[in-house]
Amino acid sequence: MENNQSPLTTRRLVGSVYTRWGREDCPSNGTELVYSGIAGGGWYGYTGSAVNYVCLPHHPEFIKGDSSGGDATIYGAEYQTNYFGQGLYDNDVPCAVCRAVGKSSVHMIPGKINCYGNWHQEYYGRLAANANTHKAGSEYVCVDHVAQFREGGGSNANGKLFFKVGAKCGSLPCPPYYDMAPMSCVVCSK
Predict the structure, then answer these.
(1) Residue 16: which residues within 8 A CB-CB, separation 6 or more?
(2) Residue 100 — φ and ψ, nearest 5°?
(3) What is the pLDDT of residues 33-83, one digit of tens each?
(4) The dihedral formed by the CA atoms of 61, 64, 70 and 75, expressed in degrees to the nearest 10
(5) 3-class secondary structure, 56
(6) Residue environment code for 56-81, b if the CB has 16+ CB neighbours within 10 A, otherwise e
């Protein structure tokens, strides 16, 4: 089988997708915006809530004829601290789904702001998750170091929440970690 595509064309066909939390745009480093949206997920206090954060589109579409109600619920997300940036507390979290053109792998590394070896930095920031004291679990996500908020979303409506993550000494060696030091993160592609 012959490959009649140029290396440049083949490179444009390859790409990995990732979510940039805290921004509605993609880095200007060869990535393309798939869509921008609003961060969301399960309610922070429900024991059965979905764990993952999701990037909900600004213009949802619904299937006609589906009845209302359900046993699971999705909520918008908000910052629960100014740690991610001044004036962000209680504001809604924007997100962007980005495609790293020509890159086949994307990975978030907690505790780093630079990528290893020949991996390419998509963005870096601060590690976020739900609070330990809340019933609902969450995943760790990387909020951009220049986080933004969604205009008009400054009420304390809760939902899926973003808190800063601290490193806890014990099983985690200190040094090189420091007890409850806020964790950084980087999203890398290759």
Answers:
(1) 99, 100, 103, 104, 105, 106, 189
(2) -80, 95
(3) 999 999 999 989 888 888 999 999 999 988 788 777 777 788 999 999 999
(4) 20
(5) strand
(6) beeeeeeeeeeeeeeeeebbbbbbbb
